[in-house]
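Re: [help] complex structure
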Amino acid sequence: MNASNTHITEGIEDDFASFGDITASATRVTPGNALRPEDIAVAGEGPASDAVAEYALQLGDDALILAQRLSWWISRAPEIEEDVALGNIALDQLGHARSFLIYAGKRFGKTEDELAYWREEDEFRSCHLVEQPNGDFAVTIVRQLLVAVFQNLLYTELTRSSDETIAAICAKAVKEVDYHRDHAIQWTLRLGRGTEESARRMRVALADLWPYVGELFVDEQLHDDVGTAGARPSTLRAAWDEEIAAVLADAGLDVPQVPDAMARGRHGEHSEHLGYLLAEMQVLARKHPGASW
Amino acid sequence: MAQQAVDTQLWEIAAQVTDPEIPVLSIEDLGILREVRREGGDAVVVTITPTYSGCPAMGTIQVDLERAFAAHGYTARVELVLTPAWSTDWMTESGQAKLEAYGIAPPTGKGHAGRVTLGLAVKCPRCHSLDTKELSRFGSTSCKALYQCRECLEPFDYFKVLS
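Output below.
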């Protein structure tokens, strides 16, 4: 790099310096878009404990990674209504992610943007299922079915959380997830009972994604630590199995018999896919720290 | 001015702010305006609740509220609350009428707990036919679904029920 380039680079950094340091939220510093989700909190305070904040982080990461995956479909879905539908679902998930991450960040002294853009791969707490690639449309629909039924059960349970903010976020989110669940079920029926090819692809997608289901229902130490603020994942399994089995039977599809994968996303151990996803999601924020538009 | 008159005036300032996506609807019509209170002097706190978690209109509404109060010499701070969660039951009757006049079918019926498998007919806001079909449950914004009228063949937005 020659001297003049260095100078230009420094100039740009000076420009960005006026927006505050990289710890500032792009949302806060953006003129004309002054939504302050940082202010969302029912109790006005941060989480009562590190465990609750960690739990909120987990919920937020699942939603954030799923939102990033789904938004890829905008302009690529098989019909324009699906561009809109998957875009809307991604937006809902992003909204949930923001609420959870803002809440978690209050305890850790970080903004939602810091948590989304400045954490390394092993600091994410998302499950492996949401990071699985979009594949063909059947893969995306099966992933949506598995996740939406899970989120619907989980958020319903969490509307009774002893933590007021988690209960409030989930009371809001569950109404939206109900639509996501409906959307996935309708497509599962359509593809399962569609052509031989659509049914074949659904079977392949089910077999490929099923190994990542087990992780959703693993009880961890964290669930003991959060107590009544959270929900024990294992207690949701029976209802999930029952609902999924009914939908698949309706669609003429079988519940796959495949073993669980070694998935420890809750401990920051992820598949190779997450790194690529984060690279794309984080590149702009890291290339232009503090930038806003 | 008497205390009550001032409070009514403050509410009316807030209530004139409209939804950027549906400009015929005020935030009062939508039912997202929860509270307006004075914090002493010219400081005002306005409480609103989002329709959908990811709704980008909330940012614009916040700025519009601050501007509306500034025009009357007040400094407004906007608070977002999530609870109790908004539902389409919060929309006023006059809001529903304005929606229909604008060409968006208002939510049919009230929200409900649990699943209702019987679909209620959505009336075409143009020709008022009940012979309409859902093209997509997801429309141009989170709160709308896309319908088409089988009678006049026009597509239209439906403000879907959120219970």
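Chain B is about 25% helix and 20% strand.
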